[in-house]
Design a protein that fits this description.
It is built from eight helices and eleven strands. The protein is an alpha+beta fold and 367 residues long. The protein has two domains: 33-183, Jelly Rolls (Sandwich), CATH 2.60.120; 221-366, no CATH class.
């Protein structure tokens, strides 16, 4: 058997090893929610006095470990036209949060009109209590801050930032809570084995490619004719302006709070993907994506394989609960975007190839 006949077998083994590594990482128990909850609380303020001074929820930790606390609360106005509910001057109170351990000792505290945080806390087994207090005056805030957050001088300074004198004296608001306690994302043996499998797969693939290229004396750099270079230049221009306008739009909407709570990394990466899509699609339909000394089938296969791998990663992220973090899309969504981009480009190449073949056959019949 020739050595070249072993190449497909090696490739299959490398892909299998890659999928095994992805499976190990995606199904690792670390990072899964130990306790999560969504609930709502209505607060009415009359003459700077809240009708409900506090609300309490409890959760149980079964073993000592470092946990990730994802906490989120956002206000919904019930009787006023609020333009920015997350800014102090538009809400009739400041929400203070205190988490205490089974012995009653504080393990975390914060105070804000609205918040979205992700922090790590060391927890021991037992029942934990989370208490939300609604502060409507500067004196209440300073008293809370002195007890749970900082010194008296710092508390006074921080209270000035909320400017309690501008808070609405009367009104009703709805407070939506979201909380998740999960294992801290430390590496487990399963995760380390998964990473090792992926590294072995990637390194062996690169080694195989280098070996094939070094033995192929006819290997050449991509060559494009003058018409293709002109079309590629236009494609670069269209792709660049697509990315520019999309990123500019994201920045403007961000300034205007038009996209609150979204993952900015995903939005900017989406702009890059759109630019690449515009560039690739234009080149495909103007026959300038594939070089004269390259084969379209090879590029299509590479795009399809990488796209399917990213699709599998995205599906596994959804199945493991990592696609959405506290109701927000996480960076794992980029796998699905990348998969969509590559599979669409692969599909366009296939359609263009079929179209060219039929068009060429029709031309031959006319002649």
């Amino acid at each position: 058997m020739k050595k070249s006949s072993f190449i497909p077998i090696i490739i299959i083994l490398e892909l299998a090893l890659l999928l095994v590594g992805i499976f190990f990482i995606s199904t690792d128990g670390k990072g899964r929610a130990k306790w999560s909850s969504l609930w709502n609380h209505d607060i009415t303020v009359t003459n700077h006095v809240a009708d409900s001074k506090e609300s309490v929820t409890e959760f149980t930790i079964e073993k000592e470990d470092e946990y990730t606390l994802a906490l989120d609360w956002n206000l919904k106005d019930e009787g006023h036209d609020l333009t920015k509910a997350s800014e102090p001057g538009n809400v009739g109170f400041v929400t203070a949060c205190v988490i205490t351990d089974p012995t009653g000792e504080m393990v975390y505290s914060t105070a804000a009109t609205a918040v979205y945080l992700d922090t790590k806390i060391n927890m021991v087994p037992g029942l934990y209590r989370m208490t939300f207090t609604y502060l409507t005056t500067e004196e209440e805030y300073i008293s809370f801050a002195k007890k749970y957050l900082c010194s008296e001088q710092a508390a006074t300074t921080w209270a000035k930032e909320f400017d309690f004198s501008t808070l609405p004296a009367n009104g009703s608001w709805s407070l939506d809570y979201s909380m998740k306690v999960s294992d801290s994302m430390s590496f487990s043996i399963r995760t380390m084995l998964g990473i090792l499998a992926i590294l072995i797969s990637v390194c062996s693939t690169l080694l195989l490619l280098l070996t094939v290229v070094s033995k192929n004396k006819k290997a050449e750099v991509p060559q494009y004719d003058e018409r293709q270079e002109v079309e590629r230049g236009r494609a670069f221009k269209y792709g660049f302006f697509t990315t520019l306008f999309f990123s500019g739009g994201v920045i403007i909407f961000d300034w205007c709070d038009g996209i609150p709570g979204q993952n900015q990394t995903i939005l900017y990466c989406l702009g890059l993907f759109l630019g690449i899509m515009v560039y690739g699609s234009y080149c495909v339909w103007h026959e300038s994506y594939i070089a004269l000394n390259q084969k379209a089938n090879t590029t299509m296969i590479i795009f399809a394989v990488i796209g399917l791998i990213n699709l599998v990663l995205g599906i596994l992220s959804i199945a493991s609960g990592r696609m959405f973090v506290n109701g927000r899309i996480s960076e794992h969504f980029l796998n699905l975007i990348c998969a969509a981009m590559l599979l669409i480009l692969c599909g366009e190449m296939l359609v263009k190839k079929i179209y060219d073949k039929k068009h060429g056959d029709a031309s031959d019949d006319e002649e």
